[in-house]
Amino acid sequence: MANAGAAKAEAPPMKVYGFCWFKRDQYVAARAMMIDPQDLFDTYDEWLHEARAIEAKAQSEGVRVMRIRFDPVSFAWFCRVQGILPDNQARAAWAASEAKERYDGKK
């Protein structure tokens, strides 16, 4: 008979991915403020199609995706404080930071 008092194995922590999520009405302006606009899709619809595909793939792999609505003021401030340029890596770092803050606040 198995030891009924044995401690249950803890589940591994859930992976949470902060995804920088643009709104249609801000996409053109957000793209223009980046130093790498060529790395973003030309149109919001193209971006949205790919973003949803990435989101679905991550979720199918057991990752919790948190859509982090792009906030140009917060993003610009984050870049300034971190001493980084507004590019793909900065968007990812900003979204990760926002997701961590929100996720940690829910524990």
Spans with pLDDT under 50 lasting ≥5 residues? none
What's the CATH architecture?
A: Orthogonal Bundle
- Provide the CATH top-level class: Mainly Alpha
Number of strands: 2
- Domain count: the total is 1
Give the ordered list of helices and strands. EHHEHH
The biggest sheet, with number of strands, parallel, antiparallel or mixed sense and barrel status, is: 2 strands, parallel
Radius of gyration: 18 Å
N-to-C span: 36 Å
Task: Explain this structure.
This protein is globular. Helices cover 49% and strands 11% of the residues. The longest helix has 18 residues, at 88-105. It starts with 15 loop residues before the first strand and ends with a helix. The protein has a two-stranded parallel sheet with strand order 1-2. The chain has four helices and two strands, in the order βααβαα. It has one domain (16-105): Orthogonal Bundle (Putative cytoplasmic protein). It has 107 residues and is mainly alpha-helical.
